[in-house]
Amino acid sequence: MLKTRYTLAYVALMTLVVVASNFLVQFPLNAEVAGINLADILTWGAFSYPVAFLITDLTNRQFGPQAARKVVFAGFVVGVSLSFFTSVPRIAIASGSAYLAGQLLDIAVFNRLRRQAWWRAPLVGSLIGSALDTVMFFSLSFAAFFVFLGPNEPFALESAPILGVLAAEAPRWISWALGDFAVKMIVGLVMLLPYGALMNVLRPMQPARAG
Fold it and tell me: Which ranges does the record mark as transmembrane (predicted)?
């Protein structure tokens, strides 16, 4: 019964993060750093989404990978449903696929590293999961090769200086992906603070099995 209550709490938190990220992704970050106009490459959703990895890792630590996957799948259902209502099908497919693949990879990496230094499993799992999530989402959403998922976005495919400041040029979506992943790395490091604070409170309630 206790496990069920905690799992439902994690599902509620994951749902909140997914809903918030889907909403905040509509708002660019209006700021400039080192000559880079962040509004061109970042939205506020990039800051809220990485919290999903914290929720997954805490679930995995406390109840193991099976419970963590249940929380991830619940977030997947919510995320895909919202995406189909708030964006075009191609973006919805990319968002759902990237979220599911990234979170499941995080669970697998976390479970492999969980007996090492306390920070290694959540940090490495979230960074590797975030990398896969970023590559999948931006490629499926905007790369010309995936036109079979839906019409290409001409603006995303236009060449522009990488991050708006480098001499080298690439399709705009490359800069969007780089900016997004940079934020995920920073937030992933910051999320070690609440993870470390909670790990002694949310102790494992059963031995975790691989898989």
Answer: 7-27, 33-55, 67-85, 91-111, 123-149, 181-202
Say which CATH topology domain 1-203 has. Answer: Arp2/3 complex 21 kDa subunit ARPC3 (1.10.1760)
Residues 88, 94, 96, 99, Cα dihedral to 10°: -140
Residue 124 backbone class (left: φ over 0; alpha: ψ -120 to 50; beta: rest): alpha
The residue with greater pLDDT, 163 or 205, is: 163
Would the pTM count as exceeding 0.85? Answer: yes
Residue 211: per-residue pLDDT:
45
Residue 91 to residue 7: CA distance in whole angstroms = 29
DSSP per-residue letters across 27-55 = SB---EETTEEGGGT-BTHHHHTTHHHHH
Cβ atoms 103, 75 nearer than 8 A? yes
Residues 47 and 187: beta-carbon distance below 8 Å: yes
Q: How many CB atoms lie within 10 A of CB 188?
A: 21
Gap between the Cα atoms of 3 and 19, Å rounded:
24
Q: Are 136 and 168 in contact (CB under 8 A)?
A: no
Nearest in space to 130 (alpha carbons), one of 196, 61, 67, 46? 46
Q: Yes or no: say if 56 and 72 are a contact pair by the CB < 8 Å rule.
A: yes
Residue type, 124: V
